[in-house]
Design the sequence.
């Protein structure tokens, strides 16, 4: 029996955010906290992030309409919603996709008490937790009040079930966050902990970089995801929009 998958799936990290900029400044100054006075959910795109999102939208718009996303699913976080909006306003989607569908399961990883702390800040304020994270590793360690990567994966399995149920055979774009991109790869490609952490170690996910899957039948006639592109930054390079890939705002110790 054929599995129910989209015809095409793109997974995109949001454009550079104001939080990314604040985090870089905190790290450069050796500070323990990131200077940004708002909830992580409310952190907007930076000016550069807006340019990146618009460039991505024009890249999608350059495709024939029959190849553009028909469904846009987006994290509720402002920076992700602004990215999705820019793609839609640039004509990068079909008419029926102009209103992105917000899904809270695509939200950024929750950092709990580690929110707004740099790696140095975590070590200074919560040395026992820092030691425990070193022992368990980022995949399974859960900051107090926050989530581990495994926790994120649990909610993303549910989100992919919804994609399968409601958007099978359609072209789907997901706009989300760095850890979410990686955790979706973990699920779709049936990886283990070591495999996904090795990919993470190679470098951060590019802001507005494209992760793309095709779904071709395998020998058993089951439709399986095939990775076509990852961290594809050509849409930005073609528009002379600088490519950035810093960790997210509140996640210096991700």
Sequence:
């Amino acid at each position: 029996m054929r599995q129910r998958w989209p015809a095409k799936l793109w997974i995109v990290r949001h454009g550079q955010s104001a939080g990314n900029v604040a985090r870089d400044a905190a790290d450069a100054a050796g500070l323990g906290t990131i200077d940004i006075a708002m909830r992580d959910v409310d952190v907007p795109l930076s000016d550069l992030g807006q340019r990146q999102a618009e460039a991505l939208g024009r890249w999608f718009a350059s495709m024939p309409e029959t190849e553009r996303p028909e469904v846009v699913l987006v994290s509720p976080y402002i920076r992700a919603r602004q990215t999705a909006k820019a793609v839609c306003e640039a004509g990068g989607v079909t008419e029926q996709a102009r209103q992105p569908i917000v899904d809270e399961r695509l939200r950024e990883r929750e950092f709990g008490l580690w929110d707004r702390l740099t790696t140095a800040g975590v070590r200074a304020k919560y040395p026992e937790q820092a030691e425990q994270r070193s022992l368990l590793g980022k995949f399974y360690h859960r900051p107090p009040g926050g989530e581990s990567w495994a926790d994120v994966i649990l909610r993303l399995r549910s989100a992919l079930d919804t994609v399968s149920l409601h958007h099978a055979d359609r072209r789907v774009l997901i706009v989300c966050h760095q850890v979410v991109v990686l955790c979706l790869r973990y699920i779709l490609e049936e990886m283990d902990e070591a495999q996904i952490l090795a990919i993470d170690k190679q470098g951060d996910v590019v802001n507005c970089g494209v992760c793309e899957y095709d779904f071709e039948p395998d020998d058993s006639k089951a439709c399986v995801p095939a990775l076509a592109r990852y961290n594809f930054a050509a849409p930005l390079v073609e528009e002379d929009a600088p490519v950035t890939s810093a960790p997210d705002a509140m996640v210096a110790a991700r």
Q: What stands out?
A: The chain has one domain: 8-213+227-238. The longest strand covers residues 223-232.
